[in-house]
Amino acid sequence: MLKKTLSVIAYLAIMFSLGFAIYYFFLSPNATLKIPDSFMSDTGHSGFSTEAFFAAKLPDENGVSQNLSQYKGKIIVLNFWATWCPPCREEMPELSALHTEYKNNDVVVLGVAIDELSLVKEFSNATPVSYPLLADENAGMALASNLGNDKSVLPYTVIINTEGEVVNTYFGRIHKKLVVDALQPLLAH
Asked: What are the residue numbers of the active site?
């Protein structure tokens, strides 16, 4: 009887934890990262450094190493994703449309997959997007963490201005309107 009671309690604890995780990570999407005032620089932007991002070289879906410094001076919508992540795949058509619409305004959408290169290649063949896809399981997650993803959540999106400063970060699935609203003040400069 005691064994059965403990099994029921363990089951309930697991269900509660799973429910909380689903609520926290999936039902509260677009939660903008709250940055403490003490972590803000003199310019008002977050203290997340993009130095490691611009110094990185990641392979694209074809395995060709891409130097991320090529995107300096552009507004970057940096989306960390994975092929196994349903919300990541759901937002890709909107990100693709955004990239196509704004690429002539020095805006680039970049997808960094926290995944195996072969899976990203397979995915991109089946589901093409208009923006560059890069992949590196380990380096990608380190870059996401350096840019504020302290929860290891996917998808995770970072907006970087032309000066190379992080201006917005989002946990969870994003929508095109949310990103367009964030881009408007950056495009006005």
From this structure: 85, 88
